[in-house]
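sanity check this record:
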Amino acid sequence: MLIRNIKEFLNLTMNKRIISLDIGKSKIGSAISDQKHLIVTPLFVFSKKNLYSELFKIIEEFNPGAILVGLPLFESEKKNKSCQMIEDITKNIDSFLKNKNNELPIFFWDESYTSFEAEEITKNIFKNLKEQRKKLDKFAAKIILDDFFRENINL
């Protein structure tokens, strides 16, 4: 279920793991938090073609309580052209989960500049640029979730 109120989302996710998704043109990065929302771990990068099967595997393995989806807003917090694609995919995820009787709260969070941050972080981890690019999206998903917790942990 798509949630528009941040306090409602936080109440629904108290003591539950949260999956973060960084949805790109062809790939999706994923990360997950612990139940106390203190540690975020990058998970996988997968193709949009495999979105539903990969997401369902993550849900079965980690039993999260919610999904946080990155939305790339302009500095003025207005939506850019990628936002519509991400919102449409997220609505499809919501429908898919309802059909699987596994409805989860879904909330959007500004992901602006997370890919740049992920590049900075991963350039020291991966010596090979090709390997870095393969893993970049899961680190962007981690940053999205870290940012969300950093700004909302005391609400």
Observations:
- The chain has one domain: 6-152.
- The chain has a mean pLDDT of 86.
